[in-house]
Amino acid sequence: MSSMDTSSTAAPQPRFHHAACSCGQLQAQARGEPLRVSVCHCLACQRRTGSVFGAQARFPRAAVTLQGESHSWDRTGDSGSTCRFHFCPICGATVYYELLAMPEMLGIPLGAFADPQFPAPSFSVYEERMHAWVQLRGEIEHMD
Questions:
Q1: pLDDT of 44 strictly over 80
Q2: Which end of the chain is more exposed for a tag (fewer CB within 10 A), N or C?
Q3: How many CB atoms lie within 10 A of CB 91?
């Protein structure tokens, strides 16, 4: 290796996570790793997702690039905070949401990434509404 070779000292490139709706019209690209990956068992998330919990990753808004047209819907949760969910007007899939009390953040549903290697949740909330058969493995903070 010559003294001019700096490849071993170069800073690692940030990872990009690509999320999209079912038809591909609405997309989000997040740079870097999520600040938090969580699951929510509240009844509103169950209804919103059509599943037994919502799973999402939070990123700094500045790290997310959005592309495509979205329609939005506001929901005030049990905590009193409001989220604005952005979904594709063609296929209806939610691709991202704004936490109105934290405008510097965006949430992206894990399913929009379609990436089985995406980091696992580290936080689980509203567990008193969790379906009895759901089991979360690994290092995870639990909250009722």
A1: yes
A2: N
A3: 13
